[in-house]
Amino acid sequence: MQGVFLSLILIVEHSKKRSKYFLISLVVIVSLNLLNYLVINSSLYVIIPHFAYLGLPLLFLIGPLFLYYVKSILSPQLKLKLTDLLHTVPFILAVVFMLPFFALPSDVKIELLQAQTQPDGQVFDLGTQVFSIAQIIHSFIYVAISLSILYKKPRGNISREFTNKLIWLKRFAVGFSVFWMVDFLALLWYAKEGFIDIRVYYLTMFCCAFAINLLVVLAIRSNKAFREVFLDIIQAKYKSSNLLESELKKHLSDIIAYMEDERPYLHNDLSLPKLSKDLNKPKYLISQVLNVELGKSFYEFLNEYRYNEVKSRLSNPEYHHLTILAIAYDSGFNNKNTFNKVFKKHAGMTPSEYLKMISGKNG
Prior knowledge:
This protein has about 375 residues and is mostly helical. The protein has 2 domains: about 1-235; about 235-360, Arc Repressor Mutant, subunit A, CATH 1.10.10.60.
């Protein structure tokens, strides 16, 4: 019920960001998993036998959904490609694996479930072992990739809000790791005993319930933090602003004109306070204009100019005697890590790959 409650909160939230839908999907799948445990651990399976294990293949979507949830928070402009559907292949294979059970008549399912809920449990056969191990390893891999992305994100030249968001996302990912570790320990117990004791499910059920309730408590008690971190809603703070849209566009035009005429982004010490002083505009106003009009933070806006400068110089023969990193530093970047991340985000490839590509075209 808490899962349903949280899902409803997220659905009615006035945001069209992809991160919201990824989070809703995660909550719904975890809630269905809890409902599945409830059906099996009670007499409900006698009434609705065809619901038993129906959501089991969905567990193979938790990893991909979590990864893309993290990506959508870190990169709000994330664009999904057709190739991203390849992440659903394990889920499809899981459905195929479960089809023989799903196709069983009601009375046979009830008989099997009754046998499973007996004190000696269900025999831990080879098929079940492979399925369980594959599901846990699959999820671990995706959580590990998500953690890798989070910890490799540049720490310099980022806003306080983004830093806070990064900290919470890391905690979220670590929490997911702990959840799958508990599942893995339960799997080891199954392997040791040779059968599935239904009582061992309780620990996994507790972890699911705890995670959902924790999110609900955070959503209620720290609604602002929840919206900013888990839903990536950063424009709400500007709703009370009295600035007209025409005024915002005028300020944006001033900012862009200054950036293109004076090219201050070439200085690696350019900061929001410095730009504020140069333009004679308050810092909060510049942030508001960039967030509302472009959906970007100051450093996203700044690094985009630097990226375009690097890209332009890489194509210019005048700079061919310089290394890629030297061009990056001359274009305003002061951190190799940040440069590589920004370039790959915009170009979809590393700087070296881009240089090879344009060299090949020129050749």
